[in-house]
Amino acid sequence: MSxxxxxxxxxxxVEPSYNAQEVTSEMIAVxxxxxxxxxxxxxxxxxxxxxxxxxxxxxxxYDSAWALINVQTSYIERxxxxxxxxxxxINVHGINDRFTDSQKLVDDWSNAAxxxxx
Length: 118
Fold this sequence. Notes:
Layout: E1 6-17, E2 20-29, E3 35-36, H1 38-93, H2 102-114
Antiparallel strand pairs: 1-2, 1-3
């Protein structure tokens, strides 16, 4: 989007007429003027509204994504705590099953918790 032209009011004193000075004003283009054309103002206002609406949409998506991340994080924390409790229980009590290697279960859990695949 291009920067709109800015204008300032310039007062001009005209030769006196009927014993009084006449002052007129005109708009001149300047770099840091306080005025813009109505067409530029309307275009800028529409652009701000469009960007604000887009920002609101993205903000809602961002909030819902963070809510989902928080839910997933709490699931992971609960499963991690349960896994460590299970590993401790297996280490202390073992498993009364001749087909299950309790130390392998503990090692597999520790590797999974560290992100190592077995």
